[in-house]
Design brief:
about 50% helix, 14 helices, Heat Shock Protein 90, Beta-Lactamase, about 675 residues, 5-stranded antiparallel β-sheet
């Protein structure tokens, strides 16, 4: 007698360790995600609030410009100088205002929109700015201010230094969207315009001024100071703000790898698509120049509500990630100490359980050698004691079990007989299925027999119709009999063709000629009078087909197309070789009402039709599909409701032999 080297106690301890380790890993995984997501969500909520503060700074600056321009436009001294045509006084006064309030431009026009005073570049006057999108609104009694994109030629009028500030060459930026150009020459300006109106409500002109945002860091630095207050993490600025012109950074305190402001770098493609292309806000982590930030982006719009740029604030993601990692490291250390403590407790608790089990193992080995008189000593009344008692009862019943096994042998023989009977019943069921298939063939034969009396009804109905007066009720009833009998005959004919399709009579033929013959059948019919047929035939080799059967297929598709267009539209027929030059493709494209997506999988089922009751048998496409399959081809369908359908018949240039098809 011996005990296994790999004891149950070891297995229990290892199993417990595996469970703890697996549970711990799951807890660590979800715990890390929970902690990280919670911290990131809190940071994102703060950044969203910071963006609202940034907009306050941005709009405050815009309103300051608006107030300066409106108050200046309302000065009586300005009105008197305009009336007296005192350009020297106007220039000195407006130039003093521009310098005092730090405006980049301050320009005055006459009542027609022609510049009469340009403070930054006095020599350039007389140009017409009445079409400017902001100035034009000020010709009515208006005061308004918006962000605006100023092209280079307009900046040059105000001063070459402004055009030089706006000029930026793109700096390659990771994750940025590709653009065909490599530089930006226009600028973004906060611009305000106000009507100059005297005491008699006469329009004397328009005064407009603004600040060029390109390389102007006043707003972004004020946002950073107001919102983030100079916070740093490991020597890095945690908070940043940026004004984008399109996807280009024109004013920012984001630093590049050299520690300089990242002017000329560009927005990541993912954020550009969301904010600039789709006009949405972006509130998520994003890669900014060289680091990951928790960010908020919102579009900047001009007076015409078009997106011209983006206002951004962001905080460095790394501090929050490091906090989450420190929390998880602390949690992991504590969990590890708990595991060690639990393993010590488990060792001592399992020892008291394993010893009785070891005695039970030795007893089973004795019984396995045939010692059915062996008994296990019972020392406790717990579950192990019950197990030992049950073990002793088991040995007493082993002899009785041998007898029961013999009886089970007999029972098994009976069950084999029952299974045999079940198999015979299944065979009878299969025979019944074959009978049902034969009934299907019989139905086809009956349909064939029905066709003969239908033909007689049709002939005699025509004879009676010829003898009846045209306007009599009998004539109308006979015409209905003829119509419905003809329809019944068509259904029976289609049923026969589907149930017993004839084998194709193969011969070399030109597909283009077969299509023309099919078209020739219908060209004089009323349904086709307002349908334009467009043919685009390729030079095709002759292939071996049953021309009559294929003409039937093409005619059926052409009729369906004409009915889908309700006799008015374009039917384009195109033939071509496929890319591998081993198949012919015949496309029938109509401009009809199209086919519903849910009907497409059932198009080739027998008796399925989308036509009104009485206008189709539902066998045409099923027969056509069967014919094309016998030619080793296929039919493809593409359709869109309201735009039309394209039926494509694909035929191989060379038919495969039976051996090739099975290989």
């Amino acid at each position: 007698m011996h005990l296994p080297r790999f004891s149950l106690q070891t297995k229990l301890i290892l199993s417990f360790l595996v469970v703890i380790a697996f549970g711990g890993l799951i807890s660590l995984f979800f715990g890390q995600r929970l902690v990280k997501n919670t911290l990131i969500q809190q940071a994102q909520s703060k950044v969203n609030h910071d963006l609202a503060s940034a907009w306050m700074v941005f709009n405050e600056k815009l309103n300051d410009i608006k107030d300066i321009v409106s108050l200046t436009a309302a000065r009586e001294s300005l009105h008197e100088a305009i009336k007296g045509n005192r350009m020297d006084i106007l220039l000195r006064y407006l130039n003093r205002v521009r310098n005092q309030y730090g405006l980049d431009i301050l320009t005055l026009t006459d009542s027609r929109g022609r510049v009469i005073v340009r403070t930054r570049n006095p020599e350039v006057i007389g140009d017409d700015v009445s079409s400017d999108e902001i100035v034009s609104y000020a010709f009515q009694p208006n005061i308004l201010a918006f962000a605006q994109i100023i092209p280079r030629h307009e900046l040059l009028k105000e001063g070459e230094d402004l055009a030089q500030r706006a000029y930026m060459e793109f700096i390659p930026t990771p994750k940025a969207a590709p653009r065909p150009e490599d530089r930006e020459t226009s600028g973004m300006m906060l611009k305000a315009a106000a009507s100059v109106i005297n005491e008699n409500d006469e329009l004397l002109g328009v005064l407009y001024g603004g600040i060029l945002l390109n390389r102007n860091y006043e707003i972004v630095d004020r946002i950073k100071e107001t919102v983030f207050r100079g916070e740093k993490y490991k020597g890095l600025e945690t908070g940043t703000a940026t004004i984008f012109q399109g996807d280009l950074r024109i004013s920012t305190n984001v630093l590049d790898p050299q520690g300089q402001r990242a002017i000329g770098t560009r927005l990541s493609e993912e954020v550009k698509r969301a904010v600039l292309d789709e006009g949405k806000s972006w509130n998520d982590r994003a890669f900014v120049v060289k680091d990951w930030y928790i960010t908020a982006y919102e579009p900047i719009k001009n007076i015409e509500d078009k997106i011209i740029g983006i206002l951004y604030v962001g905080t460095l993601e790394k501090p929050y990630i490091d906090i989450a990692n420190r929390v998880m490291l602390t949690f992991t250390l504590l969990a590890s100490l708990c595991v060690v403590f639990l393993l010590i407790i488990l060792y001592f608790s399992t020892t008291s359980i394993i010893k009785p089990l070891q005695r039970l193992v030795l007893a089973t080995q004795a019984i396995a050698r045939g010692d059915l008189d062996h008994r296990v000593e019972i020392h406790s009344s717990d579950e192990l004691g019950v197990l030992a008692a049950s073990f002793n009862q088991m040995t007493e019943k082993l002899k009785a079990a041998n007898t029961e096994l013999l009886e089970w042998g007999k029972t098994l023989e009976k069950k084999v007989q029952e299974r045999t009977r079940e198999l015979m019943e299944m065979q009878a069921h299969l025979i019944q299925s074959e009978k049902l298939a034969s009934l299907g063939k019989l139905a086809a034969g009956i349909a064939h027999e029905i066709n003969n009396p239908l033909g007689g009804i049709l002939i005699y109905s025509h004879l009676l119709l010829e003898d009846a007066k045209k306007d009599s009720p009998q004539a109308e009833n006979l015409r209905k009999i003829v119509k419905e009998t003809t329809r019944c005959k068509d259904i029976v004919k289609g049923l026969l063709e589907f149930a017993r399709p004839k084998e194709p009579e193969m011969a070399p033929a030109n597909i283009n000629d077969i299509i023309d013959k099919a078209l020739g059948i219908f060209e004089r019919q009323a349904l086709f009078q307002n349908i334009r047929i467009e043919k685009n035939y390729a030079e095709l080799p002759r292939i071996v087909v049953d021309a009559g059967q294929l003409q039937q297929v093409f005619a059926n598709i052409i009729v369906n197309a004409a009915e889908a267009m309700e006799g008015n539209g374009v039917l384009a027929i195109r033939t071509s070789l496929d890319a591998k030059n081993d198949c012919l493709r015949i496309d029938f494209a109509d401009t009809g009402h199209g086919i519903r997506e849910e009907d497409l999988p059932r198009l080739f089922e027998p008796f399925f039709t989308t036509k009104e009751v009485g206008k189709g048998t539902g066998l045409g496409l099923a027969i056509s599909y069967s014919i094309v399959q016998k030619h080793q081809g296929s039919i493809e369908v593409q359709s869109e409701l309201g735009k039309g359908s394209v039926f494509t018949v694909v035929l191989p240039l060379k038919r495969k032999t039976p051996d090739e098809r099975t290989s």
